[in-house]
Amino acid sequence: MSKERLYIFDTTLRDGAQTAGIEFSLEDKISIAGLIEGLGVDYIEGGYPGANPVDTEFFEQKRTRRATFTAFGMTKRTGRSVENDPGVQAIIQSKADATCFVAKAWDQQVKVALEISLEENLDNLRETVAAAVAAGKEALIDCEHFFDGFKANPDYALSCVKTALDAGARWIVLCDTNGGTMPSEIRAIVSSVLAVAPGSRLGIHAHDDTGQAVANTLAAVEAGVRQIQGTLNGIGERCGNANLITLIPTLVLKPVFSDHLETGIDADRLSRLTKISRAFEDRLNRAPVKQAPYVGASAFATKAGIHASALLKDFSSYEHVPPESVGNERSIMVSQQAGKSNLITALARHGITLAKDDPRLERILATVKEREARGYSYDGADASFAVLAHEVLGTLPSYFTVENYRTSVERRHNAQGEEITVTEAVVKIRVDGELLMSVAEGNGPVNALDLAMRKDLGKYSTRIEDLELVDFKVRILDGGTGAVTRVLVESRDGTGERWYTIGVSANIIDASFEALYESITYKLLKTGATQDSTVEVA
Which PANTHER family does this UniProt record tie to the protein (predicted)? Predict the structure, then answer.
């Protein structure tokens, strides 16, 4: 029996950007879009072109390879034609493959917020969808406040769905905008909508204000919708959105869904789920939630006692899915069993092949655990993991050593009498016995240190000409006077590859230095630069 296709729409970069305390830069958006695409979702909604400079620039070029690149915006305003509405035109003229327009589906909102007639709202909806389709874009309509609107005036809410469908919209998305609808209501209302639109054209967009966004999404899928919308780790305004990191494995692994539905996410992509979730939190400079379903550090952890002893004999009894299926690992605190399969997979990504019974695997695993106890986290810093693995295996070439470095920050008056801040870094590097000293000024001590370290690497200088520091994030792991600082550095080169390295120290500059040093080392590793021989794992 053939399965129905279920489509996954990620709105982390748009709806997730409404989260209090989160501001995505252009580089953040590019990086996070890559993370999301690695998960294998069908649509990536990148933002609202024309609404702000970052989103506008983000949509100046196509940012996805496989996923449908989607722009968000409002339907046209009353009193303007589609051609003369700058908001609609910014979306249609962007590099997006698809357009997602939000339209009011609650008669009260139309009258009070928009101050237009119900018929005018339908006209605006119809004309906007038609314009997007005529421009060659796939058209989606987010029916805002749909469930509240249906409860108040079901005929009008359904007319919004039918109008969008007749105008050529590929998807009509039913939005629980204030997050207050119950799963039973979702199921009943979706069933009513199916009378005017097939499930293969319907989506669900749930907010988490009652803690039921995931449950509401699953209820809608059970009722017949075939597109789900959500965000990585459930971020979003107020209490957040439906959490795709929880929804995806539930839909893929649970027979109640997987027996008759299929997604574009295969077992290999699903096994990246934990890594992607934790790497995303690193990008946000936040600690991952330990109790998060499927991907949390405690999701498959069992303390000493009856459960642990039973688990040693029968893992399946206390685990609803195999931890490795989502890229997580089992943690039995009395025996610390964990990690070999994941480690072998991670090493393979860097061209290192070890057998499961290779004793060096235990050394790497022990080193990773010891360093993570000190504050390191390699889920979001794969390049640092590669450097560490080669170091433990004895296959890391000694490209260069930094004998010492110094950074200084000076506030002074310039020749015009203006108060300025000057940051300088001095680095002494030894390459093949030759001592090289570099001095650089930068926009802050980390930038100055980065420039000085890359200024002269002797025979390796040509290897790092296209190396660029993109971003760095700082997190204080422990408060008080003995605080530990973790620095995550993002780098890229001319190939378009981006990688992340990590440094941990009580001193922010030392932590930054460590991350920068490993970024340069990783660049040399990946370009194949060696001193005397090829790096091999015996």
Answer: (R)-CITRAMALATE SYNTHASE (PTHR43538:SF1), ALPHA-IPM SYNTHASE/HOMOCITRATE SYNTHASE (PTHR43538)
Q: Are 31 and 490 in contact (CB under 8 A)?
A: yes
- Closest by alpha carbon to 233, among 179, 176, 293? 293
- The token pair at 157 is 């809410």
DSSP conformational letter for 145: T
Q: Kindly report the pTM of this predicted structure.
A: 0.78
From the centroid of its chain, how far is CA 64? 13
The candidate with the shortest Cα–Cα distance to 41, out of 19, 60, 65, 18, is: 65
Q: In terms of C-beta distances under 8 Å and separation of at least 24 residues, what long-range contacts does 488-494 make, across chains too? A: 488/282, 488/285, 488/380, 488/381, 488/515, 489/515, 489/516, 489/519, 490/27, 490/31, 491/383, 491/467, 491/519, 491/522, 491/523, 492/467, 492/468, 493/466, 493/467, 493/468, 493/523, 494/466
Output the CA torsion sign for 103, 109, 110, 113: negative
Could you tell me the residue ranges of all domains in the chain?
Answer: 4-265, 363-398+464-538, 400-456
For residue 361, the surrounding DSSP H or E stretch is: helix 359-373
Same fold, 4-265 and 400-456: no
Cβ pair 13, 234 in contact under 8 A? no
Q: How far apart are CA 254 and CA 277, in angstroms?
A: 20
pLDDT by residue (tens digit) across 55-67?
A: 999 999 999 999 9
Q: Point out which residues pair with 503 in neighbouring strands.
A: 487
Instruction: Tell me the C-alpha distance between 422 and 455, whole Å.
Output: 18
CB 42 within 8 A of CB 71: no
Query: Residue 191, SS3?
Result: helix
Return d(Cα 106, Cα 87) in angstroms, integer: 22
CATH 1.20.1740.10 fits 363-398+464-538, yes or no: no
For the domain made up of 4-265, the CATH class stated in words is alpha beta
Residue with tokens 């096994």: 271
CATH class held by domain 400-456: alpha beta
How far is the CA of 521 from the CAs of 199, 425, 504, in angstroms? 52, 19, 17
**Token pair for residue 68?**
């449908």
The CA angle 109-111-115, to the nearest 5 degrees, is 110
**pLDDT tens figures, 280-293:** 998 898 878 989 99
Three-state SS at 411: strand
Instruction: Output the six-digit token pair for 402.
Output: 């930094």
DSSP state at residue 457: -
